[in-house]
Amino acid sequence: MSNAKIKYHINDADRLVEANEYLLDVREPFEYEMGHIAEADNVSVNEIEDRLDELPKDRKIHVYCQRGKRGANAVEILKTNGFDAVNLEEGYSAYTGKYDSAQETAATAEDVSADNVEIDPNRVKVEASGLQCPGPLLKVNEVMGELEPGQQMEITVTDFGFCTDVEAWARKTGHSVLKNEKMENKVEVVLRKNAPQAKTAGEGHQMVETKDGATMVVFSGDMDKALASFIIATGAKSMGKDVTMFFTFWGLNVIKDPKAPKKNKTGLDKAFSMMMPKSASRLPISNMNMFGLGSKMIQYVMKKKKVDALTEMIEKADKLGVKMVACTMSMDIMAIDEDELLPNVNFGGVGTYLGDAENGNLNLFI
């Protein structure tokens, strides 16, 4: 009897779905929203250790991510905690690649085929080499927002995952990808802006839920978790969602204004203020903080890898129109005054959050 381990590939996904097997997508929620395998649940690899109780221990868990690496990491975590888990190798990018020709065939006669459109020599050109996810996608969303229908833009990036991301973005927003080409050390993409299409029901169209908002409660005051929340928020906003971020308790430290006037507080209010970070740039990280050294190290690595700092992500979120709400009840408990927070922050209670959550189909707690 052979002891060789059975290897699973992403090409097995459809068979597994038909057999009612359990699939787990370990990408970030905004990636999952952009497209995922039918019936797959979503728990980010970064949260999986905190959400093990949500996963079935009596079933084999078939894990996948975008290209395979995060899936392998998730499988190791699951196995360490007693789960039966396997990684679907190559990931979702290979899975979607199987359907490229089918999607082109399914295009209706009303659609203008990208194959028949010439690339405009006067297209807007954007250099985004070195930008890490979600930077290139945010740049595309920004530039396309300024173009008129029919105009084209070209973007050059060095993040190879952008190839898949931009295809999903274009499908979601109704624009066309005219060129999506990997070269030796970069990716070149040309897009054409299309006029918005009216959504109708009938003749081959299915009625769909119109709720398309995203809400998240930011409870953590850790820099890495705050950064993840803003990556998801800006990614969701660039996909056309209305995004509300509700900051409560320790999460209020994320939106403190470093230029806020100094307060003369007394008693417990003073003690709270002394113990808490003064602004987003001074937040600790959730692991290996090492009395603040870990935070400085990760900020250095982020700068070297051209990943936006948390303060820059907050500014971008504000420019994109992400709604940031501070919980007034938490502010009172944590002894934080209105003028200690960033000027672009709104104030409200749980009713504000629940009102926006009612109109959303993506709700997170970070």
Mind explaining what this structure looks like?
Residues about 100-115 and about 200-210 have low confidence and may be disordered. The protein starts with 7 loop residues before the first strand and ends with a strand. It has helices spanning about 15-20, 30-35, 70-80, 90-95, 100-105, 135-145, 160-175, 225-240, 265-275, 295-305, 310-320, 330-335, 350-355, and strands at about 10, 20-25, 40, 60-65, 85-90, 125, 150-155, 175-180, 185-190, 215-220, 240-245, 325, 345-350, 360-365. The chain is globular, with a radius of gyration of 22 Å. It contains 13 helices and 14 strands. Strands 1-5-4-2-3 form a five-stranded parallel β-sheet. Strands 13-12-11-10-14 form a five-stranded parallel β-sheet, sandwiched between helices. Strands 6-7-9-8 form a four-stranded mixed β-sheet, covered by helices on one side. Strand 12, helix 12 and strand 13 (about 345-350) form a beta-alpha-beta unit. With about 375 residues, the chain is of the alpha/beta class. The chain has three domains: about 10-95, Rhodanese-like domain (Oxidized Rhodanese, domain 1), CATH 3.40.250.10; about 120-190, TusA-like domain (Translation Initiation Factor IF3), CATH 3.30.110.40; about 215-365, DsrEFH-like (Hypothetical Protein Ychn, Chain: A), CATH 3.40.1260.10. InterPro entries: DsrE2-like (IPR032836), DsrEFH-like (IPR027396), Rhodanese-like_dom (IPR001763), Rhodanese-like_dom_sf (IPR036873), TusA-like (IPR001455), TusA-like_sf (IPR036868). This is Peroxiredoxin family protein/rhodanese-related sulfurtransferase/TusA-related sulfurtransferase. Pfam families: DrsE_2 (PF13686), Rhodanese (PF00581), TusA (PF01206).
